Amino acid sequence: MSYRTIIVHADASRHAPQRIRIAARLAVEHEAHLIGVAAIGVSREVFPDGYRAVPGSLEASYFSPLHETATRALHGFAALASETGVVHEKRLVCDLASEALARMGRYADLVVVSQEDLTEALAETVGRIPEYVAFTCARPVLVVPCAPVPHFMGRHVLVAWNGSKEASAALLAALPLMRRAVRVTLVSFRSPGDTDLGDAQQKADLAAFLARHDVQAEIIAFDRHIDGGQALLTLATQEAYDLLVIGCYGHSQFRELFLGGVTRKVLQEATMAVLMAR
Fold it and tell me: Which residues form the UspA domain (predicted)?
């Protein structure tokens, strides 16, 4: 398993350069094709056949600035990607950013976005893009934090494990990154009486699975009631992990909008990159 196609959100956000550079470095490391996606920020129902507005019209006075902003964002993406020499292409999409990334993400191995930053005035950067994309495109999403990220992101990996299908999907999605890591730790925070990872055989099976993918990992479990989201963030910060891998949990109804407490807390407060899948 490897990443062959990586999509990155290209916009006018101040966080875009860090996000694009990380995506480009990953594409170089994995010999992947990098696609920068910029959306004009208007539903595709408005322009189902692509952007067309008559110059000088009222329609153009509203939509042309959005189109121009997205075009400039793509030029910025191309300049940053060219610095690394990675094979890349630009895509200008007439849609909302969340919808464009979710649709195009279905034809990629990894989607790279930024952590939500509500202090920005750019409409396309607000709207829970990370979780919406993860829930609707069925591909892993790498969420780059607003905080500065180490140049070699992904060398120290912490994986949240509870035996669920979401955690399993995230573990599988992270294999290409974990194979290149210098330290991988799987951690489980269990309530008293929970038997997951409670016996040697379960740990051995998990370790053997990872070893067959050339990943050597430490597997630890804590027997106590604990706020899982805060515990993960605290452990990741104290032990200097630069990538946190989690399963993306949501409620059965309106799951693209409402997340489980652990996932939401991590996405809101993480200062390291987060890879999530479901």
Answer: 155-278
Going by pLDDT thresholds of 50, 70 and 90, the confidence category of residue 193 is low
The span from the CA of 89 to the CA of 164, in Å, is: 36
pLDDT in tens, 98-147: 999 999 999 999 999 999 987 875 544 445 899 889 889 889 999 999 99
User: Which residue is associated with the tokens 């916009």?
Assistant: 11
Closest CA to 249 of 159, 169, 145, 129: 169
- Rounded CA-CA distance 123/112 in Å is 18
The encoded tokens of residue 28 equal: 């170089």
Asked whether the beta carbons of 221 and 143 are under 8 A apart, the reply is no
Task: Name beta bridge partners: 223.
Answer: 190
155 within 8 A of 180, measured Cβ to Cβ:
yes
The Cα 164–Cα 69 span in angstroms is 42
H/E stretch holding 144 reads strand 141-144
41 within 8 A of 123, measured Cβ to Cβ: yes
Strands 5-9 and 243-247 turn out to be: unpaired
Phi, psi of 223 (to 5 degrees): -95, 85
